[in-house]
Amino acid sequence: MAISTSAELRALAFNCSLKPPGQPSSTAAMLGHVRDALATHGVACEIVSATGFNILPGVRSDEGSGDEWPELRAKVVSSDIIVIGSPIWIGQPSSVAKRVLERMDAFLSEADESGRMPSYGRVGAAAVVGNEDGAHHVGAEIYQALNDLGFSLAANALTYWVGEARTSGEYRQLHPVPDSTTDATRMMVRNAVHLARLLKNAPYPPKLART
């Protein structure tokens, strides 16, 4: 089967910095570079600052009055690639990243007319920044969560930068960004776009009925 490379794709990136929207952050800088890399493949990417929304705690798609997650959920299910951007805090993904992932837990009990989770056919990836060791651990936590929630992971689905421990240097202050990180970002994006196009052409099979 010939794979179309012209299928229009959409990407959504969650900026899970603890900082409020509009305040400079290294996570925002990293996701800006991810967006630029996606653009070279003809993929439009929207970056959402998660702290700009009232995402209530819970594991349902709508937690009631005041919950702004349903708006974000609609963006997720209309996108082909989802990137979770997180700083490293206490060696872990940020609490904001965990909140975003927790809310997508609802996908486990939701299905389309073919019995597939809303996340099926969507590609997940992670972008991590910090001044502590732990990028691989944070990436692993995000990977596992995305996989559990029904997202597909392409090869090398992580880009990251970790600065020297106990210093004030930040990713957003780097000019230029190290080649190793730039290369990782480009590879992550290239593979994610490739997988997303494959899944557009060949969706996962429907759930088999119990007999």
TrEMBL record:
Gene3D superfamilies: 3.40.50.360. It comes from the Bacteria. Pfam families: FMN_red (PF03358). Residues 10-148 form the NADPH-dependent FMN reductase-like domain. This is NAD(P)H-dependent oxidoreductase.
